[in-house]
Design a protein that fits this description.
Oligomer: heterodimer
CATH superfamily of the largest domain in chain A: ATP synthase, F1 complex, gamma subunit
Number of domains of chain A: 2
Largest interface: A-B, 26 and 23 residues
Number of strands of chain B: 9
Order of helices and strands of chain B: EEEEEEEEEHH
Structural class of chain A: alpha/beta
CATH topology of the largest domain in chain B: ATP Synthase, domain 1
Largest sheet of chain A: 5 strands, mixed
Distance between the termini of chain A: 34 Å
Helix content of chain A: 55-70%
Helix content of chain B: 25-40%
CATH superfamily of the largest domain in chain B: F0F1 ATP synthase delta/epsilon subunit, N-terminal
Number of helices of chain B: 2
Number of domains of chain B: 2
CATH architecture of the largest domain in chain A: 3-Layer(aba) Sandwich
Order of helices and strands of chain A: HEHEHEHEEEH
Radius of gyration of chain A: 29 Å
Mean pLDDT of chain B: 84
Low-confidence stretches of chain B: none
Mean pLDDT of chain A: 85
Strand content of chain A: 5-15%
Radius of gyration of chain B: 16 Å
Structural class of chain B: alpha+beta
CATH topology of the largest domain in chain A: Pyruvate Kinase, Chain: A, domain 1
Largest sheet of chain B: 9 strands, mixed
CATH architecture of the largest domain in chain B: Sandwich
Shape of chain B: globular
Number of strands of chain A: 6
């Protein structure tokens, strides 16, 4: 049986760990709330952007924009969006594994596949398995629109230069605090959403400048918005995942402390008993 | 005039404004324009500029970044990257940004990639100061 001192030491160390995980949980909870607010705040913009895009593509016939054009998909770009920091359960590893599977599946279909990562964790996971085309770290922890715009510009430039024919974004979308959905989203070529059956296209808009020019501006912006939205969702998901992970870690620590305390008390009892026996037997032998 | 238009200004960070207004004047890609209630459906892009709306005779101005303007059935949706009310603008910051952009532009030639970035920054700073200046005069 472990000595009293060593058990005591372990109890103290587990207690310290619990304190840290508890604190991290609190911090994540606070950050999660803010991240969630951001997601909600960004929603109307993305929604309206989609509406405008739809009304534009709806009127457009034949004469397509390069970003809408479907090319023979030979070169694929996968953007893997993870977090910069760990300790958030399976948040990053599940996503990376899904990415791996996706890449394996697609290997036959495409001539070449490039990988781009956003966030340190994804980069570290994938760098030994694939050549990382480009990595963006330190932009995910504080998502801002400029960063998303920069990333979008990079992707669009590559697409127009025909470095890749299809761009897919892989990220964790926020469903609930407890769960995130691994989402594959095709960024390029842009797939115009199907017009709903309730035909509202009766409205004839006056466009200024022409539809084509408007479209040329809105398509890149739409990519930016999509990436920005994905970033926000991913961050909210990260904090949610970290919160649940830290919550269960704290619970496990408490359980461990309970077990160790029991062990400690038993050991103490045993030590007292042996001591007593020694004293009694000593006293007996003197008497005799 | 009893009729009013519903004006919504949305940025990626938040919904800035959702109000009933009488008149909206803003800077489009092809120049400044105004809309009044009963306008035909209209969609245009906005450049960096100023948006003023009148509500019950009181005019409010905002500095805005690149965006979109849509009016349909007296509902206006403005999608912009940033929008700041004249009293929210930090003039000191705008001045600093102006100085930075000017310095950078002096060193660059129009062919540089960065040139456009700084040109836009310069424009933004100028508009901000212009809008803030208007508020101060009132």
């Amino acid at each position: 049986m472990a000595s009293l001192k060593s058990i005591k030491k372990r109890i103290v160390s587990v207690k310290n760990t619990r304190q840290i995980t508890k604190a991290m949980k609190m911090v994540s909870a606070a950050k999660l709330r803010r991240a969630q607010e951001n997601v909600v705040a960004a929603r109307p913009y993305a929604l309206k952007m989609g509406e405008v895009l739809q009304s534009l593509t709806g009127t457009l016939e034949g004469d397509l924009h390069p970003l809408l054009e479907k090319r023979d998909a030979k070169k694929l770009l996968l953007i893997v969006m993870t977090s910069d920091r760990g300790l958030c359960g399976g948040f990053n590893s599940n996503l990376c594994k899904a990415g791996e599977r996706f890449l394996k599946d697609k290997q036959g279909e495409f001539e070449s596949i490039s990988v781009m990562t956003v966030g340190r964790k994804g980069y570290e996971f994938l760098k030994n398995r694939h050549t990382i085309h480009k990595n963006f770290s330190n932009i995910i922890s504080k998502p801002n629109y400029q960063a998303a715009a920069m990333l979008a510009q990079d992707v669009i430039d590559g697409y127009l230069a025909e470095d890749y024919d299809q761009v897919v974004l892989l990220f964790n979308s926020f469903r609930t605090v407890m769960s995130q959905d691994i989402t594959f989203q095709q960024l390029l070529p842009v797939v115009p959403e199907e017009q709903g059956s309730t035909d509202e296209a009766g409205v004839e808009y006056i466009y200024e400048p022409s539809v084509g020019e408007l479209l040329a501006e809105i398509l890149p912006k739409n990519i930016e918005v999509q990436i920005f939205k994905a970033m926000l969702e991913s961050v909210a998901g990260e904090h949610g995942a970290r919160m649940t992970a830290m919550d269960s870690a704290s619970k496990n620590a408490s359980e461990m402390i309970g077990k160790l305390t029991l062990q400690y008390n038993r050991a103490r009892q045993a030590a007292i008993t042996t001591e007593l026996m020694e004293i009694i037997s000593g006293a007996e032998s003197i008497k005799g | 005039m009893a009729e009013k238009m519903k004006l919504e200004i949305v940025t990626p960070y938040s919904k800035v404004l959702d109000e009933l207004v009488d008149e909206v004047t803003t800077t489009g890609k092809l120049g400044e324009f105004s809309v009044l209630p009963g306008h035909a459906p209209f969609l245009t892009s906005l450049s960096i500029g100023e948006l003023c709306y009148k509500k019950d005779g009181v005019a409010v101005c905002m500095a805005h970044n690149w965006g979109y303007f849509e009016i349909n059935d007296d509902k206006i949706i403005v999608l912009v990257e940033t929008a700041e009310r004249s009293d929210e603008i930090d003039v000191e910051r705008a001045k600093a940004a102006l100085g930075r952009a000017e310095d950078a532009l002096k060193k660059l030639v129009p062919e540089d990639k960065q040139f456009k970035v700084y040109e836009a920054a310069l424009q933004r700073a100028l508009i901000r100061m212009q809008v803030a200046g208007k508020a101060a005069r009132k």
